[in-house]
Write a structure and sequence with these properties.
By secondary structure, the chain is α+β, with helices and mostly antiparallel strands. It is built from two helices and eight strands. 28% of the residues lie in helices and 30% in strands. The protein has a five-stranded mixed β-sheet with strand order 2-8-7-4-5, with no helix packed on it. It has a three-stranded antiparallel β-sheet with strand order 1-3-6, with no helix packed on it. The longest helix is centred in the C-terminal third of the chain and has 30 residues. The two termini are 62 Å apart. About 12% of the residues have low confidence. This is Lipoprotein.
Length: 176
């Protein structure tokens, strides 16, 4: 019986993990080009920095390469260079996937860039910390009138009196 529960929990955990993991952008997505390319990391928070790499070693890209996406400004990698860095827009939608297109010598290929939740970079200023306690009507007086306070005091006194009376009566019965 215990093995069934453990197996069920393990399968449920793996299923949840598979459904909540953002899709990774594999290089083979739109990579039918004579040159290789990549985006690192493949999942980034809005405002984060991504590295754009171009593989020129195979000789498939000799000129300037242009990298475009809806999540950052157009980047150009000059001939003789193989990488560039750019910042992801702050208004990128968390959980969305954006296409990154590499174009060189008239040939284009693409891959996806996933946007994670949260933000990197500067954090907003914290809220001001309150200094000290605000004085006012404290204790049992706040919001009660004199009649309610008197009634409460009478109930407390009567319950103490009844408890004392029962305690004395019981001890008298025990002694007899």
């Amino acid at each position: 019986m215990r093995a069934i529960r453990v197996a069920s929990a393990a399968l449920l955990g793996l299923g949840t993990l598979a459904l909540t993991t953002p899709p990774a952008a594999a290089q083979g997505d739109g990579d039918i080009t004579p040159f290789g390319f990549s985006v690192a990391p493949t999942t980034i928070a809005a405002g984060g920095q991504v590295s754009l790499r171009l593989e020129r070693a195979q000789g498939g890209c000799k000129g300037a390469a242009t990298i475009t996406s809806g999540v950052f400004d157009t980047v150009t990698i000059r001939p003789g260079h193989s990488s560039a860095t750019t910042a992801v827009d702050w208004d990128a939608k968390a959980g969305a996937s954006y296409r990154v297109t590499f174009t060189c010598d008239g040939v284009s290929g693409w891959t996806d860039l996933a946007i994670a939740g949260g933000r990197t970079g500067p954090t907003p200023a914290p809220y001001p910390v309150p200094r000290g306690v605000h004085a006012g009507e404290g204790g049992s007086v706040a919001g009660f009138d004199l009649k309610e306070i008197g009634l409460g005091a009478a109930l407390v006194a009567s319950s103490v009196g009844v408890a004392y009376h029962l305690a004395r009566r019981r001890s008298a019965e025990d002694g007899a």
